[in-house]
Amino acid sequence: MSELPRRAEELIRYLELEPHREGGYFREVYRSDERLPHHALPERYRGDRAFATAIYFLLPGRQVSRLHRLCSDEVWHFYEGSGVRIHVFDDDDRYHELRLGADHTRSESYQVVVPGRTWFGVHLTDETSFALAGCTVAPGFEYADFTMANAEELLNRFPDHKAVIRRLL
């Protein structure tokens, strides 16, 4: 971990974070004991789901959270470090950017919501730093609901945003 900012290394150890397959580090800190039955959920879910789940997520330096999507909405909560830019691509071929962080002069918010079924990826505002955030998903996260982006498909659908997409692959 020597290439990471010292505070990021401390948080990874203290919070017992593990590398995440999309980039960054995470640890699940909450999973509801109560479950929603499959028949009560929209068709996009394959099985029962916890009411909600929550993780810590730390993104350091030049690492990115690579483009992916979830079936559920994801609420991001800012805790510490640099602000982040969350790039969102939806099924109506629209793009927008969410700004998570504590710098209100840069239009950052302490909480933002990434709608379910949208492609999104994340990078830091200050690549010499890190960001510690929390992510809450309802219905709860399952890896069956997680899909990494197909680069060619997104590059074809969003030709005006090729630089952002390439950065987040």
Question: What does this protein look like?
Answer:
This protein has 169 residues and is mainly beta. It has one domain (6-167): Jelly Rolls. It is 13% helix and 40% strand. The protein has helices spanning 6-14, 151-157, 162-167; strands at residues 18-19, 25-31, 35-36, 49-50, 53-60, 65-69, 73-81, 84-89, 95-100, 111-114, 119-124, 130-138, 147-148. The strands form three sheets. Strands 1-2-5-12-7-10 form a six-stranded antiparallel β-sheet, with helices on one face. Strands 9-8-11-6-13 form a five-stranded antiparallel β-sheet. Strand 1 (18-19) and strand 2 form a beta hairpin. The mean pLDDT is 96.
Short synopsis of the structure:
The protein is mainly β and 169 residues long. It has three helices and 13 strands, in the order αβββββββββββββαα.
What are the SSEs and their pairings?
Blueprint: H1 6-14, E1 18-19, E2 25-31, E3 35-36, E4 49-50, E5 53-60, E6 65-69, E7 73-81, E8 84-89, E9 95-100, E10 111-114, E11 119-124, E12 130-138, E13 147-148, H2 151-157, H3 162-167
Antiparallel strand pairs: 1-2, 2-5, 3-4, 5-12, 6-11, 6-13, 7-10, 7-12, 8-9, 8-11
